[in-house]
Amino acid sequence: MKIAGKVFLVTGAGSGMGREMTHQIIAKGGKVAALDIHLPQLLETQQICSGGAANFLALEVDITDRAKLLALPEQVIKHFGQIDGIINNAGIIQPFVKVKDLGFDQVERVMNVNFYGCVNVTKAFLPHLLERPEAHIVNISSMGGFLPVPGQSIYGAAKAAVKLFTEGLYAELKETAIHVSVVFPGAIATNITANSGIEIPKASSGSSGMTALPANEAARIILHGMETNQYRILVGSDSKFMDFLCRLAPEYATNFIAKKMKALLG
Ligand SMILES: NC(=O)c1ccc[n+]([C@@H]2O[C@H](COP(=O)([O-])OP(=O)(O)OC[C@H]3O[C@@H](n4cnc5c(N)ncnc54)[C@H](O)[C@@H]3O)[C@@H](O)[C@H]2O)c1
Known about the structure:
- There is one protein chain.
- Helix 1 crosses helix 8.
- This protein is an alpha/beta fold.
- The protein has one domain (7-265): Rossmann fold (3-Layer(aba) Sandwich), CATH 3.40.50.720.
- The chain has ten helices and nine strands.
- Nicotinamide-adenine-dinucleotide binds at residues 11-12, 14-18, 36-38, 41, 62-64, 89-92, 113, 117, 140, 142-143, 185, 187-188, 190-192, 195.
- Keywords: Oxidoreductase.
- This is SDR family NAD(P)-dependent oxidoreductase.
- It comes from Aquirufa echingensis.
- Belongs to the short-chain dehydrogenases/reductases (SDR) family.
């Protein structure tokens, strides 16, 4: 779906890819209801966007707060007159530890934000998107949603759930005017580790051997994928390569990434 003249909800718009997508959507003539758990970060995003309140609505909401989310479409439609697309981007990672060392509180937090948050936003906005002549749902999964990364097993499980949820939505909505895209970013240069309240592992520097893509380039690839109605959007050469390797030789791919990540976990 083309961006110009359309209104999008972008979750996690206060940082990283969400901030960059918000900036680029507005630059392309779209409008954004920008949602984040942190208002100051949202206001920083607004600073880099042109057009003021006519194009940008800041929504300080936690995507795990289902009751608040269900009331949100009304607020967005009241402000902009319509809603044409949602980009479920907000997310967090887990501490870099093995499952045996991960507390149930962390398991639930990661599932709540990454999976249920995405489901909550989708269910809140879906009835309104179905009323539009054309609409789009973009859900950000991860390369970790198809490739097991040691030390991020629950994160990966949550992102795999986002993948299947989105693919199911695509199939269910095929006969409607809603396009559905699932996004698999590889390593992207953002502050997700600090924003997730996670300590950066001491051995992390260069240990994965992957070069992170700048967030603005990732945003450009995602929005291009949306504008050309792509079903699957692979972001970065690492994601493209691992997508290929996982299909060709799944066990080899698992061992390959486990070896690369070994220094992080010991
Ligand atoms: N950075 C990467 O390498 C990478 C790779 C693959 C997938 N992803 C995914 O891309 C998405 C964006 O990540 P990013 O790297 O830009 O991260 P980021 O930390 O820069 O941005 C994420 C934003 O989401 C917000 N957020 C977190 N929990 C929230 C909640 N409960 N309610 C509302 N907002 C919340 C944060 O405040 C933050 O502003 C995430 O879903 C992430 O899992 C990132």
